[in-house]
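Input.
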Amino acid sequence: MPNYFDIVCRVCISRHFIDTLFIDTGLSSLLHFYLR
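Output.
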């Protein structure tokens, strides 16, 4: 069985990285809208 907890952690970390990377440009909200 795949480790779902590890997968979720990786997704959370990647999203947090994207947020911190684009927060100054305001693209964070657009990315969240696109990822939903």
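The chain has two helices and no strands.
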